[in-house]
Amino acid sequence: MTVHHLVYVSQAAPGMSDATIAEIVEASRAYNAAHGITGVLLFVPGRDGHVGSFMQLLEGESGEVKSLTEMILADPRHHTKVVLTQGQRERRCFPDWSMALKTAAPEEIADHPILANLANKEFMDKVACGPEANTVLPLLMDFWDAEPLD
Ligand SMILES: Cc1cc2nc3c(=O)[nH]c(=O)nc-3n(C[C@H](O)[C@H](O)[C@H](O)COP(=O)(O)O)c2cc1C
């Protein structure tokens, strides 16, 4: 059975706080566990007036991933949402996580080719729409020290 996956990036809305992120993740874990969705949510705190950015991987049955994606993309707690990559894989990257959360420390992402620039307009214009977009899955897994993809 193949598993659908989707990775998007977005910018957090003004007022986003650790408490709001914790609420989102708590609700997500309940919904995702009930709908066979696994994945990771990475929050990169902003600099220079940016609130921060999200990168999220959702994986599961394709109809479930699509309907959850619609709900998430309609959520006003983030904006400038861009789907980087989606498709089918043989197995899940994060089978044990109904939604893992990580907040990246600035020093952790300083040298990271994609994450360091997540909040820049240039990233949205060039990387998010360019051919590099489909390289984010291995990057996310690397960031979580997950087992390499087949
Ligand atoms: C960055 C971000 C990631 C989210 N991820 C999930 C998720 O993985 N699962 C989930 O059920 N809700 C997630 N949500 C919350 C949904 O957008 C939405 O609030 C939830 O589905 C409840 O919708 P409702 O209030 O219309 O019932 C996320 C929200 C944000 C802002």
Describe this structure in words.
- This protein is an alpha+beta fold.
- It has a single domain (about 5-145), classed as Alpha-Beta Plaits (2-Layer Sandwich), CATH 3.30.70.100.
- Helices cover about 30% and strands about 30% of the residues.
- The chain has a 5-stranded mixed beta sheet with strand order 4-1-3-2-5, sandwiched between helices.
- Strand 2 and strand 3 (about 50-60) form a beta hairpin.
- It starts with a strand and ends in a 7-residue tail after the last helix.
- About 30% of the residues are buried.
- The mean pLDDT is about 85.
- Flavin mononucleotide (FMN) binds near residues 24, 27, 28, 32 and 78.
- Flavin mononucleotide binds near residues 32, 41, 54 and 99.
As residue ranges, the low-confidence spans are none
**Proportion of residues in β-strands:** 25-35%
Kindly report the CATH topology: Alpha-Beta Plaits
Sequence of secondary-structure elements: EHEEHEEHHH
Q: What small molecules are bound in this structure?
A: flavin mononucleotide
Largest sheet: 5 strands, mixed
User: Structural class, please?
Assistant: alpha+beta
**How many domains, as an integer?**
1
Helix content: 25-40%
What is the average per-residue confidence, as pLDDT, rounded to a whole number?
A: 85
Distance between the termini: 16 Å
* Overall body shape: globular
CATH architecture: 2-Layer Sandwich
InterPro entries: Acylphosphatase-like_dom_sf (IPR036046), BLUF_domain (IPR007024)
GO molecular function: blue light photoreceptor activity; FAD binding
Pfam families: BLUF
Protein name: BLUF domain-containing protein
